[in-house]
Structures are given as C-alpha cells and as structure tokens.
Amino acid sequence: MRDLEHARMMLTMARKDLRAIEGMKDGEVFDVEIFGFHAQQSVEKALKAWLSFAGVEYPRTHDLEQLFAMLDDHGETIPEQFRALEDLSNFAVQFRYESFESLGGELDRDEVIRQVREIIEYIERLLGDVKTGG
To answer: What is the pTM of this model?
Structure first.
C-alpha cells in the first residue's frame, strides 16, 4: 500500500541533503568524501520515497543499486539518466573511511548536484500527480 506521507517526508529529507551539497561546491572547504556522502544520502532518501510511493517496503541499506533494482522489480519505470547515480553508493560506506582521491577518483560536483536535483524533482512530480489519501 502506498505511503504518501512517508514518501513526502523522505523527499523533504532528500532536499535537505541536496541543499547541503549545493553549499559544498568548494573543494578547498569541503572534501569530496563529505560532498559525496551527502549526495548519496540525498539519492538514497529520494529512492526510498519512491519505493514508499510505490507501496514497497525497503530494507535498511545504503546500496543505491539495490534500491534501483527494487524499483525495477516492482515495475517502476526508471529514466536511464538516473542509473549513473548508483556510483554514489561507495560514498555511504567505503569513502567514509578511505580517501576517494587516493583511488584516482574525480567528481564533477556541479554535475552531481544537477543529477540529484533532477531525480528529486522527478519523484516530486510522481507524488504530485497523486492526491493524499488516494
């Protein structure tokens, strides 16, 4: 059963992480691991909002690939451009304790922000098409 209230609450939280990364563009002030963690958190919360909207109970996980797979398994149509966000999963666990740069990684912060904003707005439109209680 759809849980629109929970979905909306999760999107509100996803927006908070989005605002955080919008303020973390300066790599001299905010390390990439901190930026990436909040980007991952924003996408994770957005996907969990989508799952709640779809009536799918989700596990406690930071694995974005698993959350996308759950949406696929429940017949949700996922625009292909969002699949690149799966790469942020490592910021939830691995790069909290290991340097991203030491592995030769680069991250285009403006592009990540654009993609995160895009998936949140997509899910907001999905929820906006449904009336509360329906």
So the answer is: 0.90
